[in-house]
Specification:
alpha/beta, 6-stranded mixed β-sheet, 5-stranded parallel β-sheet, 31 strands, about 25% helix, about 15% strand
């Protein structure tokens, strides 16, 4: 980021929520970079930006689409980069229809099943398969198998990287003039995203919008780069994936991917959130973004790889990644004769995300639950349903530093006060086990920039507190001891696990470096591997996560390196270790032109050295080292060998950045603006109000949706609310509300409102406000501030309400949970909740207590005409 000429921070309050990373924004600014902050609120980030752009929460695609339209209309795109490295020249099929043709939806929409058939989205001349992780659903088609995945699994989709291309080559027009080439389709799609429309939809004045367009385009091209940074302000929407897609389209048009000071940074809200997705806490992935198999009959390892791996690009090596993972899991028990224990892996029967798990609890299907570093009783959308679900369990294990709300809801939760739950009627057996803090254990953090950094234990955990590694290892050990000698086939996968980590100290703490060594992997002689390029598909290598292979190259913990910056160059390759291969910028082949020369000396990163016949430069090249820029692969080549010398995007099966996505997303090949699930405004762009394939969970009386736009009753909830984080507290509060100093700095839950809204609704500064949705009612202290400025949207004044989401009733600093107000309507790709844009009413005074609180919510539902069908249309 320090090398950027312009930085756009949107969907994040980076200065407060990611302050360590924000130092590099300030470094770039000191070097002359322009900083733009796009956010409904004026925050500490805004105060340090050159330009603050207030906009209506939930309208970022309209805003970004307007910039895309500006780039195309004014020919500000980086044409040579675009033609060489993107799918802009590729021609689409004749039967593809865009939102402009179909009143806001794409061709292939199945309204009954709330899904798209993407056959018409394909390229002319070939078929592009789904992204890795989704192709397993097409197992029968691709492998000729005879069994069908369950209907539930057929609706489950997730991308894990690249996409496979069928036989033949897609038709291309490098003049970019063919009416059905991606470039022309893109231009038509965004033609109506004008400055005038951006002003009407987002509330951003046209002059301010044009200033942003000029700053971004002036600071992009051969000699300059612009970076984007986002956080959960972009992801937590029913179209969250398409927010990031819109930024990807823009950055590809401008040639800002794979280059110093460019790219799109997903800012992570905790030290190792990146690590928890790499070695996943996600239900649908195996380590290194290998997809979890679906529940097919008679699917062996070869059939899975055939159905999943792409023909071209690095996902073509999936078998080597997966076999090495299975060897790490099962060791000598995994052999060619038993398919390397592939049958031991669990199988998906659909989406098993957090919110489906809650519904399974309510339905009595899910009987037990582990909460490790999570506090859903206040931290998840529609917190009430989280608690009701946990009240229907047989057992619940909570591991945390403090007695968080998810450990005590059975005796002091809101439903006890309202009478909806009675402690004596709750059958859930709750186990609270104190957890060690990161200072009390060894391990690694993987941060925003994919950088692994090792931390060493500073002190022993107090009392009975133990690390998560200790808990997991010893729980597994005890289960294996209980199952020892079992002849039950179902127990064999657990018994065959390699579960032999060395332990130290009086508590028998597992050696964290031994786990890192297993993750890194070994060859057949037990030597630590140095690169994922060394992984084999014949069982001779083991690797717990292929993208981390090399973190112990030479048997040395590379993540523990701390060479000072003044002793190395600006890439700082000896500070920690970045996956993959210690590469600091992904797709950096795109930092050079098609001939392998840097686009400019100022932005040089890697380049082709014709004398040595290899790629060289400041960073580790993201390309085969000896593959020349003019390399043309043989027609029968597969995997990485099938990539040509200008196929810079090596994880994509065609080696190109995708402006248009023919497969891999469930909700459309191009980002399109839809209103949030609950919105007080109609969609000005299309007849289609909401994302037609957003994920709605089965109807529940405590998860009612609200009318939106022009629907009767929508103005019962006339204000837009958004949740956010503060510097002084952390996520759901478990790490901060029990700290006296932090509780003193932010002692109570509050809401931010403008002076104009305060006057309109009779709210007094530091007084109380009651905030109501169709799901719940909360109270908050009132903070009257100019930081949340009113906007003019569609000709009327809009007020927005800011709600930090850290609070709950436990700890030193207490208050209602903002997430009580939220619905469970999810992004269909990631199953993430829409917390960043929803509609509420706000009124002065404290909320009612007990059953009276339920009556108030019911009264609002009645006024708005809400029933189980409201807001559920495709």
């Amino acid at each position: 980021m320090q090398n950027a000429d312009c930085i756009v921070i949107e969907g994040s309050n980076m200065a407060e929520c990611h302050p360590v990373g924000f130092q590099w924004v300030m470094e770039a600014k000191a070097r002359g970079a322009k900083v733009i902050h796009v956010d409904p609120r004026f925050t500490r980030t805004s105060a340090l930006a050159d330009v603050h752009v207030p906009l209506r929460a939930g309208t970022d695609i309209a805003f970004l689409g307007g910039i895309i339209n500006y780039v195309l209309r004014h020919e500000k795109y980086f044409r040579e980069y675009l033609v060489a490295y993107s799918n802009a020249p590729v021609i689409l099929r004749e039967d593809f229809r865009d939102t402009e043709d179909l009143a806001g939806v794409f061709s292939g929409l199945d309204t009954d099943n709330r899904s798209y058939d993407n056959a018409s989205w394909q390229y002319e001349g070939t078929e592009v398969q789904a992204a890795s992780g989704e192709r397993d659903q097409e197992y029968e088609v691709r492998t000729g198998g005879g069994s069908s995945v369950t209907e539930a699994a057929r609706g489950e989709a997730h991308g894990a990287g690249g996409a496979a291309i069928g036989e033949g080559e897609p038709e291309r027009d490098e003049t970019l003039t063919h009416p059905r080439c991606v470039f022309q389709v893109l231009g038509r799609h965004y033609a109506r995203y004008t400055p005038e429309l951006v002003e009407q939809v987002c509330g951003v004045p046209q002059d301010l919008f044009r200033q942003v367009c000029e700053l971004i385009t002036e600071n992009s091209g051969r000699d300059r780069t612009t970076a984007f940074a986002y956080a959960v302000g972009w992801t937590q929407h029913t179209v969250g994936v398409q927010y990031i897609r819109a930024a990807s389209v823009l950055q590809t048009l401008l040639g800002n991917i794979g280059r110093p000071g460019g790219g799109i940074l997903a800012l992570r809200g905790h030290a190792s959130i990146q690590g928890s997705t790499d070695i996943p806490t996600l239900f649908n992935l195996l380590p290194g973004y290998i997809p979890m198999p679906h529940a097919h009959e008679n699917e062996d390892l070869d059939a899975f790889v055939e159905g999943e791996a792409s023909r071209k690009g690095y996902w073509g090596n999936m078998r080597a990644y997966l076999v090495s993972l299975l060897k790490a899991y099962f060791g000598d028990a995994a052999s060619a004769g038993n398919d390397y224990c592939f049958d031991y892996l669990p199988r998906l029967t659909g989406s098993h995300s957090t919110y489906e798990t809650t519904m399974a609890q309510l339905d009595g299907v899910c009987k037990g639950y582990f909460l490790i570093g999570e506090n859903p009783a206040v931290g998840n959308a529609n917190s009430k349903l989280m608690r009701l679900g946990m009240a229907n369990l047989d057992w619940l294990v909570v591991r945390d530093f403090s007695l968080i709300e998810s450990a005590t809801w059975w005796k002091d939760g809101p439903e006890i006060e309202t009478g909806e739950l009675r402690t004596e009627d709750i059958g859930t057996e709750v186990f609270f086990l104190p957890a060690a803090a990161h200072t009390e254990k060894d391990g690694s953090f993987t941060n925003t920039q994919r950088l692994l950094q090792w931390h060493h234990k500073a002190v022993e955990p107090p009392g009975e507190a133990r690390s998560d590694l200790w808990f997991t290892y010893h729980l597994g050990r005890l289960v294996r001891e209980r199952l020892a000698g079992s002849g039950d086939e179902m127990d064999q996968p657990v018994l065959d696990l390699t579960w032999d980590y060395p332990t130290t100290g009086r508590h028998a703490e597992p050696d964290a470096e031994a786990v890192l060594a297993e993750i890194n992997g070994y060859d057949a002689e037990g030597t630590a591997l140095s690169s994922y390029e060394e992984l084999k598909d014949d069982g001779s290598t083991s690797c717990g996560c292929w993208i981390y292979c090399g973190v112990r190259a030479g048997g040395v913990n590379q993540a523990a390196r701390r060479k000072p910056g003044e002793e190395q160059d600006w890439v700082a390759a000896e500070w920690g270790w970045a996956w993959p291969a210690n590469r600091r910028i992904l797709y950096n082949r795109a930092s050079a032109d098609p001939q392998g020369r840097p686009w400019s000396e100022r932005k040089a990163l890697v380049w082709w050295d014709p004398e040595k016949g290899e790629w060289t430069g400041h960073d580790v090249p993201d390309f085969k080292k000896d593959k020349s820029p003019d390399h043309v692969p043989p027609e029968d080549a597969t995997g990485p060998e099938a990539l040509g010398g200008t196929d810079a995007f090596v994880m994509q099966a065609d080696g190109k950045a995708w402006l248009y996505v023919p497969s891999g997303l469930t909700d459309g090949p191009l980002p399109a603006h839809y209103e949030p699930q609950d919105s007080p405004f109609p969609n000005l762009l299309y007849d289609q109000q909401r994302n037609p394939v957003r994920q709605l969970l089965p109807p529940h009386p405590d998860n009612r949706y609200q009318p939106s736009g022009d629907e009767p009753g929508a103005q019962v909830f006339p204000y837009v609310a958004t949740t956010y984080r503060l510097t002084e507290h952390h996520t759901a509060g478990g790490m901060s509300r029990w700290q006296p100093y932090l509780a003193e700095l932010q002692p109570e839950f509050f809401c931010e409102v403008s002076p104009e809204l305060a006057a309109e609704r009779g709210l007094e500064h530091t007084g109380w406000a009651t905030i109501v949705s169709a799901r719940g009612v909360i109270e908050a202290r009132v903070l009257v501030t100019d930081r949340v400025a009113p906007l003019t949207v569609q000709g009327r004044r809009l007020h927005q309400v800011g709600l930090p989401y850290h609070w709950g009733p436990n700890g030193y600093s207490t208050g209602d949970a903002a997430n009580e107000l939220l619905h469970m309507s999810l992004d269909p790709n990631t199953h993430i909740q829409e917390t960043k844009a929803f509609a509420v009413d706000i009124r002065p005074g404290r909320r009612p207590r007990g059953p009276a609180a339920l009556e108030l919510v019911r009264a609002y539902r009645t006024r708005a005409g809400i029933d189980e069908h409201t807001g559920t249309e495709p």
